[in-house]
Amino acid sequence: MSLMVKICGLREQMAVEQAVNAGARYLGFIFYPPSVRALRPDEAATLMADIPDNVGKVGVFVDPSDREIETVLALCPLDVIQLHGRETPDRVAQVALRSGLQVMKAIQVETADDLGALSAHVAAADMILFDAKAPRDGAAVPGGNGLAFDWQLLQNLTIDKPWFLAGGLNKENLALAVELVDPPGVDVSSGVERWPGAKDPAKLDAFLAEARRLADLHKAS
Ligand SMILES: O=C(O)c1ccccc1N[C@@H]1O[C@H](COP(=O)(O)O)[C@@H](O)[C@H]1O
């Protein structure tokens, strides 16, 4: 098993370099102004300048207009557009067609009902990401909340596209998550931070080392 790791919500050059050197497969940059991790396109472009081609650059959007996406793409060489709002499968397909990029659709999960539209999203998107539903507080952003959901809901899932488990992951709970869900990829933001928006070098290294350990364990078994 190779476990893909996506580190999301990057804002600092040092953290970008560290994530690349420690084996992250994807790096995520937030283009959603209400988030504490949001970046302007020019700031993100600077952070992306030296990322090697084998590491995917993911732009995270929430119900974006075409114009919002185009404004970011004018400066940022994204590989993947992550849609983390209430986008329908038709909208997902439209974004993929217009941008020519891969699209990762985030599905926010609380109960089995939240997986009802999964097959339509799988058909429309190139990748799927499962995250916890945001708190019902009206001020909450739809992701990056450090909240996990009931991972058992994803057990025995068969999806013929790459997919990621996200939501409240950290070094301590990664082994259990991987054992229960066996995801091809995992995605983390809060769990490798000192405080919202600031990545913690020690937590970042520990998370990526744990992901490598779990992948090696799986290979050896
Ligand atoms: O991180 C954010 O601020 C954010 C804002 C809006 C949409 C998505 C966002 N983040 C995504 O949420 C997952 C899970 O985060 P966490 O590990 O639970 O903190 C994160 O990896 C991003 O893909």
UniProtKB/TrEMBL annotation:
It comes from the Bacteria. CDD domains: PRAI (cd00405). Residues 5-208 form the N-(5'phosphoribosyl) anthranilate isomerase (PRAI) domain. It catalyses: N-(5-phospho-beta-D-ribosyl)anthranilate = 1-(2-carboxyphenylamino)-1-deoxy-D-ribulose 5-phosphate. GO terms for biological process: L-tryptophan biosynthetic process. InterPro entries: Aldolase_TIM, PRAI_dom, RibuloseP-bd_barrel, TrpF_fam. Gene3D superfamilies: Aldolase class I. Its EC number is 5.3.1.24. Pfam families: PRAI. One of its GO terms (molecular function) is phosphoribosylanthranilate isomerase activity. Pathway: Amino-acid biosynthesis; L-tryptophan biosynthesis; L-tryptophan from chorismate: step 3/5. It is an enzyme of class 5 (isomerase). Keywords: Amino-acid biosynthesis, Aromatic amino acid biosynthesis, Isomerase, Tryptophan biosynthesis. Belongs to the TrpF family. This is N-(5'-phosphoribosyl)anthranilate isomerase. It comes from Arboricoccus pini. The gene is trpF.
